[in-house]
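Quick start: read one record
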Amino acid sequence: MRVAIDRDPCVIAMADFLAEEREFMDWLTDPVRKRCETSAYEHVTRNVIVALCVTGLLVTWGAARDRGDRIDDDLVLDRCRIETVSAISGIPKFGEAMQDVGWAHEHEIGRVVFPKFFKANETPDEKHKRQAAERQAKFRAKQVEESNVAHNVRSNGVRNVTVTPREEKRRDNPIVPLPGFLGFWTEWPVSERKGSKSKCADLWRKNKLEAHAGEIIDHVRAMKKSRQWSDSKFIPAPLAYLNQAKWEGAEIPGPEDNRLPI
């Protein structure tokens, strides 16, 4: 059972479904000889029925795991119908409530399927192992693809017999040289915030800053001589500088600028 399953929207929906079922209402109030007119909520709170649903799920899923079979991520229980699920749980209309939220359905006569049961109820350790296995499968598939490409090249003596998705992407998005950016990056003073070079280059390219390279570099050179940047802790990150376009309309301070650092 998952922690805080009583807060799962499906469990709350099951409680609301049962609260309006006559068979469930009569079963719930029979010990106290009360009758519900339209809803069990006339006599009990939603939390009471939610607690019943959690108990019913514990019993039902436990019996299904013990007697059922796994098919992919589904849990399958043979010789079972939706009405049988209610009997297993001991709660009238419980099977119908599970069916209403998509947690169970009668696949064919005599077989009930609990869809995606093992994936939805896997432990953190099981989830980690599954994700690791999926990454390994993708990595192996990529290796096989690259191996086939290399084999075709050797067999035919021709390069690019098969174009991989990565090569196709390179063709569609050729890398344009950015001499202005290289000048900017070289000019930027060394500090602990100088980083994210590739992101800066992407932003430079996206905003077409190559046309403004001279203006930007002049501003950086001036700021390097200013009192503002005399202490490395006041030098901004280059990515923030580019994002905020700090050179635009900025007053370039001189070497003797006495303003306080920003």
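Residues 258-262 have pLDDT under 50 and may be disordered.
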